[in-house]
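Quick one, tokens below:
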């Protein structure tokens, strides 16, 4: 849970020594020991000369988008909301951001949520949709010089959709250019001038489209500069070859151009000679994806080493902050965390103060001084430094990072060439301070242009002749739970806005005039067709509330605009990417009256726990849905009538939500979450017994016992079913239906079950016996569980491992793929495997960290494969491969990167019972780590 902001006394200092005198002007919290620590490492001589040259610095910024990461900030109460904004944007107070990049909403999930479009349907533009306008206005209010940058992750489904077919939109179309022009017009309505505009985030580029976009902006005299292509460096090659394309692009924007890519270490960075020769600014137009505290070291390395290694002149951190619910992915990633708008609690990250180390001592338009920038002691492990100055030489600042250093070291400065030789102000951040940073640690006056500093490891220092720096003093209130009951009639929001605390995951849920003759405002799902998506599709849904809510009743009025199904969500917990991988319970009710209670999990699996049919709801009429939680008992109701109850223990707590199966403009009103006042009766139980092992083709007995507690009413109309896994044969050996079971009694049923013989039969097989019955006037569903192992026979001959059964399989991104690359998160979405151009028709496509186990039964002697990073992510990625036999590592590779050739393996596995194929992340995070076991096979006896 979010903690209120706490500070600890730092254990670091900077010793500033002039050539003639020792000058200390330290803050009182410095420890005496740190102040007297002598350097043990190398001394670096740094000459800062006003005649030095370098590229133009374009600024440091952050990204509100990709997606929904700023959603909860607008719902914060004052004064906390204003204080968070001050920490992000106000000069001399906190991060003091110089650029703000925002998502151009497209009604589709772009990581942690969906941002609303200004034009859900063709021709209807609503310039007040969403919260990015408000955020940009607040940023400009605090810093009128901040530059604004718009980029789309997705788009409404009507764009480029010539036949209005589901999923038929085309981003690279004239519709999209017109849409962006309309968005720029909305910005003008909000008094905002957009400085930069991109194409489609991380989805490549269309040269002709960029040229048309440039022409459209020029024809309208819009002074907006174009960034291409918010993806990889390959766009620079086309810019160099195509003059018309070059004339249409102002900035080369690259994502994650440092070691490890997305979420990586950034120990080294890269660009290309071609990119640097385009004559255009090179930007790390998205970087970061790191925790607000632990990611601070990689953040400063991406800035300093990004310039030293790749000549990147702007850095934009993803995201701005984590103003999202804590059950979502990336919930602590950004410069700050603000996930409790009801309490006003927030947390400032070390990354925020690390950003201030650059932004508070520089200005966009300054020049890097290449001769005063480099690696400490000539060794990147000791750290790096960059120096910047304005064109008139009226100031200078040197930013030094020792994030990878292991001992104290010195830097000797010589200043000249017309630069000021007066007082140098020193600010510092301990990268391990957990939110404590940017402290003024001392001033020094150079003597004859010379001064020295002692640099402690794991720090960032800013040495500057500028003034006006500062560290905000506002502190967070304590965290707290969102109290129940909670109700919202949606009357408090202007039309076209998201309801308080309601966070879109897919589609767009906005306030609108109620339909069906109901007065006032309701919430309407606005995306009428599948959007042009950035990640996988799902039903349109939105979440709200405290993830710690436990026993409650959630209800909402619903209005089906046309035939289809609406959803009421309860106990919504962890979400993994994509958004369809949402844990929770869903009450689904169709216009026909068909209803179901569905359990969803973080693997994207949907399990129907109970279903039935009630009176038809029809369309264009209002109805009320309810979902109650009491311990393990979940009760569904329609129009005040209980239609079913199910006992399930998967999720004890969670949020609520509203949803639509597919995309329709259905409406919701009078959302209510009330604490449960009267607990449900003690639930019945189903116990199951099954042998621990059943061999392929063999039979066993499954016994199920239904027991009813002594309290509560009797059970009538009981039916027991075995809940067999796929491909098992089952035959009852006792009666399975019972007319009545009295309180405090039990009944038993048995079946003969026969295991499958297919090679893809899983090792672990779980039976879910089900009891359906009537109790206390409502139909109930109660489940049991029993598992058995179906052993895999030892392989014979020389099979490819992709043709063998998995004992188990764990993977860092989506499922393990047989005979294709890993692909994305869906099963079967891989591409043909290839390592540096060499194809493999057979093998396994995985993503670090991965562990795939096979049963060999001591019958095999050799394992062979060619391993490496798949071409679909090269040159990114870095992994190591290992073979583990019966708990002992029998082979391991060095770290292989996206540039490494495929490495042949030939390993003795004689006597191994169970072999694990393991892929690790190479020590720098698992971004881009798609790895192949190309042609993997075993040689076995007959």
């Amino acid at each position: 849970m979010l903690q209120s902001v706490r500070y600890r006394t730092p254990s670091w200092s900077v010793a500033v020594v002039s050539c003639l005198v020792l000058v200390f002007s330290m803050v009182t919290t410095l420890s005496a020991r740190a102040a007297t620590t002598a350097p043990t490492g190398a001394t670096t001589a740094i000459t800062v000369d006003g005649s030095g040259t370098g590229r133009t610095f374009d600024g440091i910024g952050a990204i509100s988008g990709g997606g929904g990461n700023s959603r909860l900030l607008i719902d914060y109460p004052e004064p906390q909301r204003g204080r968070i904004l001050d920490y992000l944007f106000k000069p001399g107070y906190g991060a003091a951001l110089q650029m703000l990049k925002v998502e151009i909403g497209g009604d589709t999930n772009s990581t942690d949520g969906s941002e609303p479009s200004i034009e859900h349907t063709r021709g209807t533009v609503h310039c007040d949709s969403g919260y990015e306008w408000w955020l940009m206005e607040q940023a400009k209010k605090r810093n009128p010089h901040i530059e604004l940058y718009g980029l789309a992750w997705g788009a409404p489904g009507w764009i480029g959709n010539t036949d209005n077919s589901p999923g038929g939109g085309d981003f690279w179309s004239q519709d999209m250019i017109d849409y962006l022009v309309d968005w720029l017009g909305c910005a003008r309505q909000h008094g905002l001038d957009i400085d930069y505009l991109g194409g489609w985030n991380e989805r490549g580029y269309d040269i002709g489209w960029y040229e048309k976009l440039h022409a459209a902006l020029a024809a309208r005299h819009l002074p907006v500069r174009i960034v291409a292509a918010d993806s990889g460096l390959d766009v620079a090659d086309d810019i160099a070859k195509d003059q018309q394309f070059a004339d249409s692009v102002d900035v080369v924007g690259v994502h994650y151009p440092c070691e490890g890519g997305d979420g990586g270490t950034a120990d080294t960075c890269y660009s290309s000679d071609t990119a640097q020769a385009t004559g255009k600014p090179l930007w790390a137009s998205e970087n970061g994806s790191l925790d607000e505290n632990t990611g601070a070291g990689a953040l400063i390395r991406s800035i300093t080493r990004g310039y030293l290694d790749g000549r990147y002149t702007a850095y934009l951190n993803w995201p701005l902050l984590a103003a999202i619910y804590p059950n979502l992915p990336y919930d602590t990633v950004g410069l700050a965390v603000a996930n409790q708008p009801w309490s006003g609690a927030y947390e400032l990250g070390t990354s925020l103060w690390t950003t201030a180390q650059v932004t508070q001592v520089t200005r966009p338009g300054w020049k890097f001084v290449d001769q005063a920038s480099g690696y400490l002691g000539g060794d990147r492990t000791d750290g790096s430094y960059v120096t910047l100055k304005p064109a008139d030489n009226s100031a200078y600042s040197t930013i030094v990072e020792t994030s990878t250093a292991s001992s104290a070291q010195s830097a000797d400065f010589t200043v000249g060439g017309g630069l000021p030789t007066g007082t140098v102000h020193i600010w510092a951040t301990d990268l391990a301070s957990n939110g404590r940073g940017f402290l003024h640690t001392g001033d020094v006056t150079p003597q004859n242009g010379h001064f020295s500093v002692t640099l402690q490891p794991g720090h960032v220092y800013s040495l500057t002749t500028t003034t006006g720096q500062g560290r905000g003093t506002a502190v967070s209130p304590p965290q707290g739970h969102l109290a129940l009951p909670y109700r919202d009639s949606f009357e408090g929001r202007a039309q076209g806005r998201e309801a308080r605390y309601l966070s879109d995951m897919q589609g767009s849920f906005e306030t609108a005039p109620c339909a069906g003759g109901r007065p006032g405002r309701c919430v309407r799902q606005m995306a009428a067709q599948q959007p042009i998506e950035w990640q996988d599709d799902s039903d349109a849904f939105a979440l709200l509330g405290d993830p710690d809510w436990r026993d409650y009743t959630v209800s909402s009025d619903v209005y089906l605009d046309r035939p289809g199904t609406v959803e009421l969500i309860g106990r919504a917990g962890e979400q993994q990417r994509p958004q369809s991988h949402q844990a929770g319970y869903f009450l689904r009710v169709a216009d026909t009256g068909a209803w179901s209670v569905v359990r969803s999990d973080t693997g994207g699996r949907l399990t129907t726990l109970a279903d039935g049919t009630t009176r038809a709801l029809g369309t264009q009429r209002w109805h009320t849905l309810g979902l109650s939680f009491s311990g393990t008992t979940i009760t569904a109701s329609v129009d005040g009538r209980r239609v079913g109850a199910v006992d399930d223990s998967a999720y004890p707590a969670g949020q609520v939500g509203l949803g639509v199966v597919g995309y329709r403009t259905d409406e919701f009103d009078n959302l209510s979450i009330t604490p449960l006042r009267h607990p449900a009766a003690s639930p019945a139980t189903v116990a199951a017994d099954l042998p621990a092992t059943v061999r392929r083709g063999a039979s066993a007995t499954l016994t199920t016992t239904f027991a009813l507690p002594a309290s509560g009413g009797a059970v009538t109309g009981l039916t027991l079913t075995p809940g067999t896994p796929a491909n098992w044969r089952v035959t009852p050996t006792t009666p399975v239906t019972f007319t009545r079971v009295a309180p405090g009694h039990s009944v038993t049923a048995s079946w003969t079950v026969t295991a499958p013989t297919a090679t893809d039969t899983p090792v672990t097989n779980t039976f879910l016996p089900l009891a359906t019955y009537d109790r206390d006037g409502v139909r109930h569903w109660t489940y049991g569980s029993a598992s058995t192992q179906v052993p895999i026979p030892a392989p014979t001959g020389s099979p490819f491992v992709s043709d063998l059964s998995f004992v188990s399989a764990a993977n860092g991104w989506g499922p393990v793929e047989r005979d294709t690359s890993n692909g994305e998160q869906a099963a079967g979405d891989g591409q043909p495997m290839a390592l540096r151009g060499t194809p493999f028709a057979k093998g396994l496509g995985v993503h670090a960290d991965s562990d795939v186990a096979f049963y060999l039964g001591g019958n095999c002697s050799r394992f062979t494969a060619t391993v490496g990073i798949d071409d679909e992510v090269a040159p990114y990625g870095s992994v190591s491969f290992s073979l583990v036999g019966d708990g002992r590592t029998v082979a391991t590779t060095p770290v292989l990167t996206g540039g490494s050739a495929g490495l042949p393996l030939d390993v003795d596995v004689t006597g191994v019972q169970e072999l694990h194929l393991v892929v690790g992340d190479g020590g720098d995070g698992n971004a881009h780590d798609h790895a192949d076991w190309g042609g993997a096979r075993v040689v076995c006896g007959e």
